[in-house]
Amino acid sequence: MEQKHNKDKQAGFTFIEIMAAMMILVILIGTAGFTYVRYVSTARVVATKNQIENLSIALNSYILDCGRYPTTDQGLQALWEKPVLEPVSDRWNGPYLNKKVPKDPWENEYEYKSPGPYGLPFGIRSLGADSMEGGQGNDRDISSWED
Questions:
Q1: CA-CA distance, 89 to 3, in Å (whole number)?
Q2: Distance between the two ends of the chain, CA-based, in angstroms?
Q3: Per-residue exposure over 40-73, b if at least 16 CB sit within 10 Å of its own CB, e if not
Q4: How far apart are alpha carbons 75 and 79 in whole angstroms?
Q5: Nearest Cα residue to 106 out of 39, 53, 41
Q6: Residue 1 has pLDDT above 60, yes or no
Q7: Per-residue CA distances from 14 to 17, 18, 19, 98, 139 (Å)
Q8: What mean pLDDT comes out for the span 127-144?
Q9: What span, in angstroms and rounded, lies between the C-alpha atoms of 119 and 71?
Q10: pLDDT value of residue 95
């Protein structure tokens, strides 16, 4: 028995099959991308809260040594280097952090005020992703005085 070969047909994928496969890939990549962005945003908020907590702990060590919190003008930098602006304590025994004062996850400086809002001794705040006061979601401010 003789096999017939059809030379007119070529093995391979049709244009429609390739386009269908590409559409499936685009959908999968898009879904993965949105999921990635959501988790990165959540991770930045959690990291900011952790950094604010670490700075608060360092400020409490500072007051134990120096008898007062750094002034607003001295700022959080007083946790890393002995302040040069008055009042300067002779009992400064820092640095009170393991590294230089970090920026928030959006590469902005933390705001520090002493005394803080609502009668608190100090306040630390990140302005969030939009670097502006207020905001919703990822743009919302994150502070030491709020949950």
A1: 98
A2: 83
A3: eeeebbeebeebbeebeebbeebeeebeebbbee
A4: 8
A5: 41
A6: no
A7: 5, 6, 9, 61, 47
A8: 89
A9: 15
A10: 94
Q: For the whole prediction, is pTM greater than 0.85? A: no
Helix (H) or strand (E) holding 113: strand 111-113
Q: Verify cis geometry, omega within 30 degrees of 0, for the bond prior to 102.
A: no
Structural domain boundaries of the chain?
21-143
Q: For the domain 21-143, what is the CATH code?
A: 3.30.700.10
Distance between CA atoms of residues 66 and 58, nearest Å: 12
pLDDT in tens, 73-115: 999 999 999 999 999 999 999 899 999 999 999 999 999 999 9
Measured between alpha carbons, how far is 52 from 143 in angstroms, rounded to an integer? Answer: 7
Which tokens is 58 given? 């360092």
